[in-house]
Write a structure and sequence with these properties.
The complex is a heterodimer. By secondary structure, chain A is mostly helical. Chain A is built from 9 helices and no strands. Classes of the chains: A mainly alpha, B alpha+beta.
């Protein structure tokens, strides 16, 4: 589904040569991904958009250091990760809960989660393939719920209304989706775990 | 039990008590903690397929009335073809001389947004007032004196832009729009901006300084809220649609002719009758363009043609009277569709021929 066509490869070369239209292509392709990754850690849509914008700007300025087409995504996510970590560590993330202890605990956990992710070029490409495969293999209804929830940021109630099912059914689909994804991705994430700890 | 709470937490729907319980559970053992970290990691990484929604759901879902069934299938068949075709179109059209986004400063100097780099914008005194990005500009700095200087930003057809004013208000500007606004808002009085075209406002709260959008012959007054205003000069109306908060729309020359909006309502100012009309709407539909989409709901082709002209910077000449009367419903991703894709799709419902020369599209009766 997402193999790099010769078309994208050509674009990558133009991008390296400073072609702005080619850059726009990658900008459009990755903006949402970076935004939707970051928002999971900084909990602010606008901030996450700014961050994605910054990451992509940084990519353009450092295009010479990107060596392969797969390196683009690794570059962007690595930037997003360190930016998120910075924001959390410097207390620039909005308070989500009234109870300050919860805010504090959440930040500590988020730091651990971020640190556990390595954005290696090869791994990322492989991971992308596995995730896309796993999502597309979900049962149709479950997949629809998952996509609406995760990528369209819809509330359970909205999804229930759109699909004409009960709220409970939406929740059940979500639980099912994450369970399946967890099983499918487990082996792979476990592998990464070993790689990191052996290096 | 726990996995349900984790899921709720990840999708941001857990209550504070539930989060508290979850965090207690996480702290109970290292194993629990690792399980949570793994779940959140997977959740965060699924973003690697954030474009999946677009790939599995048809890009264009044009469905004419009463023909929903078979049409959906068509839309799905179109998908792969669209994906390839559009990108090429995008590139061809962009290599032609594009019209530019122009920012006119208070002293008449003009700034362009051609470069991809971030640049700083200084006022005539040499103070830093804004940072310029390729598709966005962010103003900042504290309000200085009461001498307010206005900037004017013009977005040509085929482009969209985002602007953050010095009070933190975010304005998304649609194609073919001009906005005049203070470089920095004054210490006292209202926050005034002047709109020609269409914009989506997310106004930052400041009860002491009402935010007023002057659009054509109507004023829209706000106290911190999200709403869309459409005031293209070629239309004899000004529409404002409220998403969140509360706004008041009034006649510019007669402030007693006013109407108060609640969320999910749209107020329309009619130039001819000098009347304000209120109706209930689905606001996401009117704000679709801010997410890079065109949304139509029983929209006549004449209106769709105008929108296509602005969005893709083309001229459409329609010589087909059947088509002019036809209504369409559907959603289109702007960046992934081209004028050809859209016309080809419409053609399946109401047959017509079209030809494209340079940037002029001529629509004729079917042969």
């Amino acid at each position: 589904m997402n193999t790099n066509s010769s078309f994208e490869l050509n674009l990558f070369h133009s991008f390296k040569d400073g072609d702005e239209t080619a850059y726009t292509f990658f900008y459009d392709k990755y903006f949402r991904r970076i935004q939707s990754f970051s928002v999971q850690f900084i909990y602010d849509q606008d901030e996450a958009e700014n961050l994605a914008q910054e990451a992509l700007l940084h990519l353009w300025q450092n295009r010479e250091s990107v060596e392969s087409i797969n390196g683009i995504q690794a570059f962007l996510f690595t930037y997003a990760k360190s930016k998120c970590l910075n924001l959390i560590r410097h207390n620039k993330v909005k308070d989500k809960f009234k109870n300050d202890l919860l805010n504090h605990k959440e930040r500590e956990l988020d730091i651990e989660v971020l640190n556990s992710i390595q954005f290696d070029t090869l791994e990322l490409t492989e991971l992308e393939r596995i995730i896309q495969e796993s999502i597309s293999e979900l049962p149709p209804k479950t997949r629809e719920v998952f996509i609406k929830k995760r990528f369209e940021n819809k509330k359970n109630a909205e999804i229930a209304e759109e699909m004409g099912v009960t709220l409970k059914a939406v929740e059940a689909h979500m639980t099912k989706a994450l369970k399946i994804l967890k099983t499918k991705l487990s082996d792979y994430l476990f592998l990464i775990f070993i790689l990191i700890y052996n290096n | 039990m726990t996995s349900e709470i984790i899921n709720k937490y990840l999708s941001n729907e857990a209550s504070e008590q539930e989060v508290q319980a979850l965090f207690d559970w996480i702290e109970a053992s290292e194993r629990n903690k690792q399980q949570f970290i793994k779940a959140k990691k997977i959740w965060a990484l699924t973003t690697l397929s954030a474009n999946l929604s677009i790939e599995t759901v048809p890009v264009i879902q044009m469905k004419p009335k009463n023909k929903i069934g078979p049409y959906w299938q068509y839309a799905a068949v179109f998908l792969v073809f669209l994906g390839l075709g559009t990108t090429f179109y995008l590139f061809n059209s962009k290599s032609e001389t594009p019209k530019e986004i122009v920012l006119e400063l208070g002293d008449g100097r003009k700034e362009y947004f051609s470069g991809k780099n971030q640049t700083n914008l200084l006022n005539d005194k040499g103070d830093l007032i804004a940072k310029k990005f390729p598709t966005e500009i962010i103003y900042f700095g504290k309000v200085q004196d009461h001498k307010v200087i206005y900037n004017t930003l013009s977005i040509p057809y085929g482009k969209r832009f985002k602007l953050k004013l010095s009070d933190g208000t975010v304005v998304s500007l649609n194609s073919g729009t001009t906005l005049r606004y203070p470089e920095q808002f004054g210490l006292n009085g209202n926050r005034n901006v002047y709109l020609n075209g269409e914009a989506f406002f997310e106004v930052s709260k400041d009860k002491n300084h009402p935010f007023i959008v002057h659009a054509n012959q109507a004023d829209i007054e706000v106290l911190g809220t999200k709403f869309n205003v459409s005031a293209y000069p070629e239309n004899p109306t000004v529409n404002s649609t409220l998403i969140e908060g509360s706004i008041k729309m009034s006649e510019a020359n007669n402030s007693s002719n006013a109407i108060l909006l609640e969320p999910n309502q749209m107020a329309t100012w009619q130039n001819n009758s000098k009347k304000l009309v209120l109706k209930e709407v689905d606001p996401t539909f009117y704000a679709a363009w801010t997410k890079g989409e065109l949304a139509f709901k029983d929209t006549p082709f004449s209106t769709i043609a105008k929108i296509i002209q602005r969005t893709y910077d083309v001229e459409i000449i329609n010589e087909n009277s059947d088509l002019a009367r036809q209504n369409f419903t559907g959603t289109i991703k702007i960046s992934e569709s081209s004028v050809e894709n859209i016309l080809d799709l419409l053609k399946r419902d109401t047959p017509f021929n079209y030809s494209i020369h340079q940037k002029t599209v001529t629509i004729t009766n079917p042969r």
